[in-house]
Design brief:
323 residues; mainly beta; Thiol Ester Dehydrase, Chain A; twelve-stranded antiparallel β-sheet; two-stranded antiparallel ribbon; 3 helices; 14 strands; 13% helix; globular; disordered N terminus; disordered C terminus
């Protein structure tokens, strides 16, 4: 076998050829996932005090984030952006594992023409900028960040999010008796709406139940779902609420699956596991920003726990804005 001579500082030594750089995922603990299969990020590096380069990969087939018309699920991009925040908090800002992250808002816009599922998994390059880094006593207490997601040099999505970090003791004071409880009494799991009416193929993945009223549903909270509830939690995760917004929008905008291109969500309160959550939807002005848009609101005991504006291109053949 041939060997390669490596020259360093006017001396030489014999060495084997350098092995190619191998790809793996980031530690699952850094992105708050129990299953390694749910980790979408593969690496990161700091560019300057506020900028980072992150890499990731989307599978060609996912058990929950399923394809729509041969395109990657837009909420796969939302989950990717969510994972970026916790990765940077732990890996770059020194937040200890075990701290709690409270998602405050998340926004996403996707470019459908770059979402096509190809012959190999989609490799991603993310440019991340952190305009707001909040600390107290040298510890991160909150982060706002923006991300541009590229695939083969093309922008596939842009978005951002913000969250608050809380140490375990602070979180216990904040949550009171609900802290660290995943065994709270929950409303019974209600029957799902027909999967095809909300863009799903399996009842198991449906998060809406009928109420008998048009444009109003009960949130169907299945804590045994392996993706939406990847690990025990004491409240309803933000990604579950985003999925509820997506399913409600699918029902109203198309009456089934369609490619949704924009999400702008806010989470002002905890969504509790043991309280009924009603999901309501209303259309926004026709062709709002050139898109068909709806406002989805989740309420518990009459108070909003999340709002989300969901947008999609108008159906083919619809009149242009202002026409």
């Amino acid at each position: 076998m041939s060997e390669t001579t490596v020259r360093m500082d006017s001396t030489s030594r014999t060495a084997r050829p350098v092995a190619p750089q191998l790809t793996t995922t980031v530690p699952r603990e850094y992105v708050h996932r129990a299953a390694m299969a749910e980790v979408l990020l593969t690496g990161w590096r700091r560019s300057d005090e506020r900028r980072f380069s992150v890499t990731g990969q989307w599978p060609r087939l996912h058990s929950f984030f399923s394809a729509v018309d041969g395109l990657h699920d837009p909420l796969l991009a939302a989950e990717t952006i969510r994972q970026v925040g916790s990765l940077l908090a732990h890996a770059e800002f020194g937040t200890p594992l075990g701290h709690h992250f409270l998602l405050r808002d998340l926004s996403l816009t996707v470019e459908p023409r770059h979402l096509a599922i190809g012959g190999v998994p989609a490799g991603l390059d993310l440019d991340v900028f952190c305009p707001q880094i909040r600390t107290r006593g040298g510890e991160l207490t909150g982060l706002r960040y923006e991300a541009v997601v590229r695939r083969d040099g093309q922008t596939v999505a842009t978005g951002g999010a913000s969250f608050v970090c809380a140490a375990p003791a602070v979180y216990r004071r904040l949550r009171g008796e609900r802290a660290a409880r995943s065994d709270v009494r929950r409303p019974p799991l209600t029957a799902p709406v027909p999967p095809s009416s909300v863009g799903r193929s399996a009842a198991y993945d449906v998060v809406l139940s009928p109420t008998g009223e048009e444009h109003l549903w009960r949130l169907r909270v299945d804590t045994g779902h392996p993706v939406l509830f990847d690990h025990p939690v004491d409240h309803i995760p933000g990604m579950v609420l985003l999925e509820a917004a997506r399913q409600a929008a699918n029902s109203v905008l198309r009456g089934g699956a369609c490619v949704l291109t924009g999400f702008t969500a806010e989470f002002p309160r905890f969504a509790e596991l043991d309280l009924e959550c009603l999901i309501e939807i209303r259309r926004l002005p026709e062709q709002f920003h050139g898109l068909s848009s709806v406002l989805v609101t989740g309420r518990q005991e009459g108070e909003p726990v999340f709002t989300c504006v969901v947008s999609a291109p108008p159906p083919t053949g619809s009149p242009a804005p202002g026409a």
